[in-house]
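TICKET: design request
STATUS: open
ATTACHED STRUCTURE:
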């Protein structure tokens, strides 16, 4: 839908989100007192300087200075625009993102109509499955039970050429919508000459697997033939809703089933995902008949830091695995775990889990080959490491692959692993191959005390930092309006924050900062929210805040503003508005005339 996302919904989203869970699914966090720590995912470092506060719902890196809320983290880490970051968090919680204002016409309205059509088609296919004994017998033969079919919305496209067309294409607009979503195909020129212009159903006599986006909306379908036929699997084409290189089948269902996803298993087929889920393995997803893409990996690593790829053990499977490895290299960095599982000959995940059961299959997943080991072992094939020439060859063919790996601890360890086979030290090999890293990240002394805050500007910063990090302190300020007397923008911001907290006393640090996201002061307030303050009890922090506010209010009186305007008049002159303001302030400051006796 069109329109802005209401601020009240952002408040609710931040209140219901656990930033530790969001960041922890991408970065390995360790508990450190009241906070969590990790090596920063935004710059290479060996000593953790990245902290996450569950109380504030805020993160901050003392090394590179980046900080923010869960929404900011998704925008920075996953490279998402703000609306998509909101959609991501809302999808985790099963919430629909509301919109306010805006028109109900135009492209957004058109997309809503297409989503509604896909939902109706999904129900149509499910109804057809219920009425088809042949389709139900096929699913039983594949080992699926009704509960699994219902959970994944499995359906059946009847064998006729116009079943979906007749139901939803009675008008020209309906036919066009069916064509746009890929549910029907337009006859080619030869067919039109013989049969006249028209359309026919894309999916016929197939088990239907609806593909759902992060919000659970059907964006496309995969269809599997019941008997022999080609292609065995048929996917929806690229449409305004569906992009094959971006979607992952089963990811929505996995996120619905599991509160926290520690690992994702990437398999090849729809049936693999469904059959594994029925066996109790709910973390499998499938690429849609295409090689793994960077967009796939972005989506996978938004959810978890541990990804295992499952491939057949034959030549074709290993070729596919190597292509996946090359795509994964730019994502192979600290905090990410990428592994490869090769299945026994003649088996896919569907047949293997049916044959050996869940525990044995998960044991295979747990012992999958790490990316580093698979990369080196693959490069060593047909190379004679007993000779200098062979070892030099290994280093040379490894160079372009290592160049794709981001700087960091993982890259250094990967170079060390290759160096052992080349019989050379890691730093020496890195230097010879031109893979040397930059200077070491300086160690930040996290124990040093904050510098004392002095001066008027710093006094305002102190007050803002305290109210952002201890929001309950605002309740003690009864008259924030007095801060506005001097007309200073910073004081107006402080007064507005206090008034926000009077209206909504339970706002957290993250919620306060998000309320300023689209305003010029957002960056400064975000920095102050992450500023290191003395570790004080709430009551002591409140006293510090009140003291700062009282001093600011005393200095914000009309006398100070009059002095500023008079000084400006002598330096550069005043605008008409400023002249009027000066006259009004001086009038307010004059003592009232005494009445005559």
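STATUS: resolved
RESOLUTION: sequence designed for all positions
ATTACHED SEQUENCE:
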């Amino acid at each position: 839908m069109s329109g802005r996302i209401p601020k009240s919904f952002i408040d609710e989203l931040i209140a219901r989100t656990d930033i530790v869970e969001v960041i922890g699914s991408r970065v390995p966090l360790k508990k450190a007192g009241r906070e969590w720590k990790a090596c920063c995912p935004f710059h290479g470092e060996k000593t953790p300087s990245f902290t996450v506060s569950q109380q504030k719902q805020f993160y901050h890196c003392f090394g590179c200075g980046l900080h923010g809320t869960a929404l900011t983290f998704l925008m920075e880490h996953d490279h998402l625009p703000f609306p998509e970051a909101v959609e991501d968090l809302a999808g985790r919680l099963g919430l629909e993102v509301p919109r306010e204002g805006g028109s109900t016409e135009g492209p957004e309205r058109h997309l809503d109509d297409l989503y509604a059509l896909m939902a109706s088609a999904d129900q149509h296919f499910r109804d057809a499955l219920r009425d088809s004994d042949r389709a139900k017998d096929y699913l039983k033969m594949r080992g699926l039970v009704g509960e699994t079919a219902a959970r994944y919305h499995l359906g059946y496209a009847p064998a006729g050429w116009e079943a979906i067309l007749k139901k939803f294409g009675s008008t020209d607009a309906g036919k066009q919508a069916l064509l746009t979503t890929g549910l029907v195909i337009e006859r080619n020129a030869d067919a039109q000459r013989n049969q006249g212009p028209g359309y026919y159903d894309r999916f016929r006599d197939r088990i239907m697997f609806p593909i759902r986006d992060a919000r659970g909306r059907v964006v496309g379908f995969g269809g599997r033939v019941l008997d022999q036929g080609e292609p065995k699997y048929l996917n929806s084409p690229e449409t305004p809703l569906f992009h094959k290189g971006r979607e992952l089948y089963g990811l929505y269902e996995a996120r619905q089933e599991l509160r926290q996803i520690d690992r994702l298993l990437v398999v090849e087929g729809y049936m693999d995902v469904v059959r594994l889920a029925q066996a109790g393995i709910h973390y499998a997803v499938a690429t849609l008949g295409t090689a793994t893409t960077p967009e796939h990996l972005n989506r996978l690593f938004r959810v978890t830091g541990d990804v295992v790829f499952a491939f057949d053990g034959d030549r074709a499977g290993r070729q596919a695995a190597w292509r996946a490895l090359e795509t994964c290299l730019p994502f192979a960095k600290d905090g990410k775990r990428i592994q490869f599982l090769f299945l026994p000959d003649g088996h896919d995940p569907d047949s293997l889990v049916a044959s050996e059961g869940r525990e044995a299959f998960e044991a295979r997943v747990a012992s999958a080959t790490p990316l580093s080991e698979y990369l080196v072992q693959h490069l060593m094939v047909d190379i004679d490491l007993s000779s200098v020439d062979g070892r030099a060859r290994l280093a040379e063919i490894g160079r372009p692959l290592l160049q794709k790996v981001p700087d960091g601890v993982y890259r250094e360890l990967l170079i060390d692993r290759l160096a052992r086979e080349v019989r050379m030290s890691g730093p020496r090999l890195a230097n010879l191959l031109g893979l040397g890293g930059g200077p070491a990240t300086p160690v930040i002394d996290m124990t040093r005390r904050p510098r004392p805050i002095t001066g008027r500007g710093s006094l305002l910063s102190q007050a803002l930092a305290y109210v952002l990090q201890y929001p309950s302190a605002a309740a003690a300020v009864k008259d924030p309006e007095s801060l506005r007397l001097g007309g200073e923008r910073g004081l107006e911001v402080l007064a507005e924050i206090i008034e926000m907290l009077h209206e909504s006393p339970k706002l957290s640090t993250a919620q306060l900062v998000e309320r300023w996201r689209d305003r010029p002061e957002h960056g400064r307030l975000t920095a102050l929210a992450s500023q290191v303050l003395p570790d004080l009890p709430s009551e002591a922090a409140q006293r510090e805040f009140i003291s700062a506010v009282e001093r600011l209010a005393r200095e914000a009186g009309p006398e100070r503003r009059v002095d500023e305007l008079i000084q400006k008049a002598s330096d550069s002159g005043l605008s008409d508005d400023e002249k009027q303001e000066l006259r009004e302030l001086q009038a307010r400051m004059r003592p009232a005339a005494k009445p005559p006796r």
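CLOSING REMARK: The two ends are 72 Å apart (CA to CA). Residues 220 and 232 are 17 Å apart (CA to CA).
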